[in-house]
Amino acid sequence: MAVSSESGTLFVVATPIGNLEDITLRALRVLKEADLIAAEDTRVTRKLLAHFDIHTPLTSYHQHTEARKVEWIVEQVAEGRRVALVSDAGTPGISDPGDELITACIEAGLDVVVIPGPSAVIATLVASGLPARRFAFEGFLPRAAGERRARLEALRAEERTLLFYEAPSRVLATLEAICQVLGDRRVAVAREMTKRFEEVVRGRASEVLEHFREHPPQGEFVLVVGGATPGEAPPPAEPAVSPEEDVAERVAAGMSERDAIRAVATERHLPRREVYAAWLQHKRGG
Ligand code: SAM
Q1: In the sheet that 221-225 helps form, which strands lie side by side, from edge to edge?
Q2: Domain boundaries, the chain
Q3: Which residue from 15, 86, 95 has its CB within 8 A of the most atoms of ligand 1, so it is best to mutate?
Q4: Which stretches of the chain drop beneath a pLDDT of 70?
Q5: Mean residue pLDDT across the chain
Q6: Whole-model pTM over 0.90
Q7: CATH second-level architecture of 121-225?
Q8: Ligand 1 pocket: which of 91, 222, 223, 224 to mutate (most atoms <8 Å of CB)?
Q9: Strands (E), 158-220
Q10: Ligand 1 and 188: CB distance under 6 A
C-alpha cells in the first residue's frame, strides 16, 4: 500500500498490570492526544482513562476481532489518524491481542511506535532471583495435561530461564508437571505483581508446590523455572509404571499400603490423595 505523507501512527501503549501508578508520562500523553484508542476490552480501558481524566474515543480490538475491523483500523492510521493500541493490562502483543494489527500496519508501510512500560513477564523475571541474562518466555502452557507435559518435555534441555503465565486454577497441576518432567529445579512463583497481595515464593519446585498445596493459588501468576544445567543429563523420564502399579509392586515386596503410597507420592511429587485414589481404583480392578 502506498503511504501518504499524511499517514498517522499506530502507538502500542503498555498500561499497568495492577498498580495504576505504573503508567508512563509518555503513555498518558499519547492516550490523551490519540484520535482513537483500540482496546482489548473497552470497559476495562474506560476505567483507566477515567482515572486519568482522558476522553479519547474507544473502539474494541480483541482476539476475536474480524479481519474487516483490523482493516478499518489500518485505514484510520493510513488516513492520518493517531491510533493507540492497549490491552487490559501490560504490553499489547505479549499473550494479548496486538500482533495481527501491528503486522498489518507494518505490511501497509505505516509507522508503528511502541510506548514501553509494564509487562508481568519482565517484572517477574527480575524479581525471581534466577538468571535473567538469557530467558525464554513460553506464554501459557497448553491446558490439556498431555500437551502441557509434551511442551515441558520439549523444554527439558533448555538452558535459559523459563517463564510461563498460568491461571490460578492450573498452578498446582503445572508445578506438579514441572517437578515430574523438569526435575526439582529452582523456581520462583510470582503472584499479584504490583498489587496489594504481591508475593514471590522461591525455592525448589517441590517446596514451592508444597507451599501452594497449603495456600491454594489465588490471583494472577507467573512461574519462573531455572534452565537446565549445561551438560546436565536430562532428568529421568517419568517411570514406565503408573503410580498405582508402583504401589502394587512395593506392597507385593512386603511394604505396607500406607508406606508404599507415601513413598510413591514423595518420589513422584504427587499429592498423596491422588496416589491413594489411583491405588483404590487399581485394587477394585479399575
Ligand atoms: N500483556 C500482559 C503483560 O504484558 O504482562 C499479559 C496478559 S496475559 C492475558 C495475562 C497473564 O499475565 C495472567 O494470566 C498472568 O499469568 C500474567 N499477569 C498479568 N498481570 C499480572 C500480575 N499483576 N501479577 C502476576 N501475573 C500477572
Answers
A1: 135-140, 161-166, 221-225, 186-191, 199-204
A2: 9-118, 121-225, 243-283
A3: 95
A4: 1-6, 232-240, 286
A5: 93
A6: no
A7: 2-Layer Sandwich (3.30)
A8: 222
A9: 161-166, 186-191, 199-204
A10: no
